[in-house]
Amino acid sequence: MQVTVWESVSRGLQRVLGVVVGVLVAFGFARVAGIHAWSIALVVFVSILAGQALRLGQQGSVQVPVSALLVLVLGATTGGYALDRVVDTAIGAACGILVNLVVVPPTRLEDARVAVADFGRALADLLRQVADDLGTPGRELSAHLSPARGLGVKVTAADQAVSRTATALRWHPAGRRDRPEVEKLVGATKAAILVERPARGIARALADAPEGWSPPPSLAEPLRQLLLGVADEGGAWTARVTSPGHGDQTGPDAPGSGTAELYHRALLAARAPEVQPETAAIVSAIALDAQRISGELRGDPDVPPPAPFRWRSLFA
């Protein structure tokens, strides 16, 4: 028995087929070569190759040489051992699947929601903190690099949590009910992966700025408004992808819907003749990364189409 119904079916099938292949290999060598030290070594070697060549998965590939060795050694003294081993393995796999269907395993859907929401909140907090520090001269701007790097840990945790839930829902009794929400979370994690890099780019641009650097008020205010707008979009995105049945908020009155105009205002301010080239480069880089984040967060998550079922996927 495995953690999920899908894994119980997959691992059980792998073990049964691995045992069958191992039994067939052992029977063939026993009839042709007999039981000798060299034949046992050759059986193990051929069994390992057979398991890998047939791509029986991790469980199945291990069972081929183990079953072949046991059948070759014990089958000579125990009549019917080969058939008993196949039947025992099949009964064990069937019992594991049955228990998984009766004692329904948890899908961990709430854990997936929490992990995605944790990333969204951390992203919005980072952008708001950067915006506040840009408007306050003398702040240590390089301090944002560490929390920005922490976004990578959070997006990895979210991706793993959503993947676990998606696997748990396969052949799960609640799969039909919860699948639309999980597919939305899968799309959200793909967007989060794309968003994490420009967020780090904003922190890196500030960390690479000269010591004591601070944008003039004519630049700081539009850039600050842009970052706050994108932070609002991050909050709206988090609520949209983690709340079941949450409506779309991508209309003209949606939070952060004016970030495109703020982006152009920041770029125009950076082009002013009195702005130093280095300051213009830093502000433009931050504005561009903020606009990239906004583009990924606006709209509904890109829900991938359901993959067709293939028997080979049971041996992955």
Helices, strands, pairings?
Blueprint: H1 5-32, H2 37-53, H3 57-74, H4 81-102, H5 109-134, H6 145-169, H7 175-207, H8 217-242, H9 259-270, H10 277-297
Description:
- With 316 residues, the chain is mostly helical.
- Helix 2 packs antiparallel against helix 3 (57-74).
- The chain folds into two domains: 5-102; 109-297, Up-down Bundle (Methane Monooxygenase Hydroxylase, Chain G, domain 1), CATH 1.20.58.
- The chain is 72% helix and 0% strand.
CATH class of the largest domain: Mainly Alpha
Mean pLDDT: 84
Largest sheet: none
Structure class: mainly alpha
Distance between the termini: 17 Å
Which stretches are poorly predicted, pLDDT < 50 over at least 5 residues? 247-256
State the domain count. Answer: 2
- Please tally the helical runs, counting DSSP H or I stretches of 4 or more residues: 10
| Sequence of secondary-structure elements | HHHHHHHHHH
Q: Quick recap of the structure?
A:
The chain is an all-alpha fold and 316 residues long. It has 10 helices and no strands.
Give keywords:
single chain; 316 residues; mainly alpha; Methane Monooxygenase Hydroxylase, Chain G, domain 1; 10 helices; 72% helix
